[in-house]
């Protein structure tokens, strides 16, 4: 696979590279200066699809949400590279008790807030960050449809929807003549396969949706840096990673990744991502980096082609 290879994002007419960059790190684990250098490097390395959310990174001490969008906006203003990137953000997670959900009046307010922080007049992909069961799907989709007609948004997507609700939303769009979700953002990686493959995958493939999956490296586990309980100390999230993934099945997956990465002289990270990129229906897994060295490692995945036997080896190990 060449670095310049691209794919269509559903039926949106938007073209993206083989990986999506997750902007949750901006204003959380990387400061503004480092964020700017990462963003410049992303464009230079051909990874110009950037995904963020209005809520990033509210969870960090001293933050209130909007930090990631604000940093991206400052970079866009300074660099003038708006036309060189595809920009995705999200609405719906709680920013405050009154700023949450997918009611039309809130979507209207949230999109203006995001556009202001991002210092742009349009968002390429605007996503419902999670399902809002208290708001009729037709109301939410109607609000999104208006934003597309006004030119503020190019396409819409869904994140964290169940298969049933996603199907229902697509049906509402068709029946009511409204814009439809063109993408899905689910959790999916070599370890966490079952929920997506059993229910969501048949829907997205039948409907031709783009898939930009998150936790594509299982919170770093698939990079191979957590191999025994002592490795929990390697990062802030290490304990959770070790507790969830360090078991016979997890170790079996790491063994397969090691064998294939040795054969290609690449890293386990690159193999884990190449397996996803090769899966029918997956458009561009979401990855994050906090340094240029990590970014180079990720970029290598777009140039790695696994053999059918190697894909089968990973399928079997992660059954």
From TrEMBL:
CDD domains with a match to the protein in the record: AKR_AKR9C1
Cite the PANTHER family for this sequence.
NADH-SPECIFIC METHYLGLYOXAL REDUCTASE-RELATED, OXIDOREDUCTASE-RELATED
Q: Does the keyword Oxidoreductase apply?
A: yes
- What's the name of the protein? Aldo/keto reductase
Q: Which Pfam families match?
A: Aldo_ket_red (PF00248)
Q: Which domain of life is it from?
A: Bacteria
Output the Gene Ontology cellular-component terms: cytosol
Could you tell me which residue ranges the NADP-dependent oxidoreductase domain spans?
19-318
């Amino acid at each position: 696979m060449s670095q310049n290879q691209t794919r269509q994002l559903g039926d949106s007419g938007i073209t993206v590279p083989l990986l999506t960059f997750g902007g949750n790190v901006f204003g959380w684990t990387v400061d503004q200066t480092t964020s700017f250098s990462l963003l410049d490097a992303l464009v230079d390395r051909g990874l110009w699809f950037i995904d963020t959310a209005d809520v990033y990174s509210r969870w960090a001490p001293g933050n209130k949400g909007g930090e990631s969008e604000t940093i991206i906006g400052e970079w866009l203003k300074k660099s003038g590279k708006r036309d060189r990137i595809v920009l995705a953000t999200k609405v719906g997670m709680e920013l405050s008790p009154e700023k949450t959900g997918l009611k039309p009046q809130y979507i209207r307010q949230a999109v203006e807030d995001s556009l202001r922080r991002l210092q742009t007049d349009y968002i390429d992909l605007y996503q419902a960050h999670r399902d809002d069961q208290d708001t009729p799907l037709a109301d939410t989709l109607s609000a999104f449809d208006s934003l597309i007609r006004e030119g503020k948004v190019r396409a819409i997507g869904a994140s964290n929807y169940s298969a049933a609700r996603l199907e229902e939303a697509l049906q509402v769009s068709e029946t009511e003549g409204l814009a439809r979700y063109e993408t899905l953002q689910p959790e999916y990686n070599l370890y966490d396969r079952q929920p997506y493959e059993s229910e969501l995958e048949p829907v997205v493939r039948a409907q031709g949706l783009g898939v930009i999956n998150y936790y594509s490296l299982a919170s770093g586990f698939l990079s191979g840096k957590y191999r025994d309980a002592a490795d929990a100390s390697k990062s802030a999230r290490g304990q959770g990673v070790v507790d969830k993934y360090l078991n016979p099945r997890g170790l079996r997956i790491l063994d397969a990744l090691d064998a294939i990465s040795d054969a290609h002289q690449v890293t386990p990270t690159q193999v884990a991502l190449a397996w996803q990129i090769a899966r029918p229906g997956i458009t561009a897994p979401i990855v994050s980096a906090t340094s240029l060295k990590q970014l180079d490692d990720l970029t290598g995945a777009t140039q790695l082609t696994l053999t059918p036997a190697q894909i089968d080896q990973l399928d079997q190990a992660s059954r």
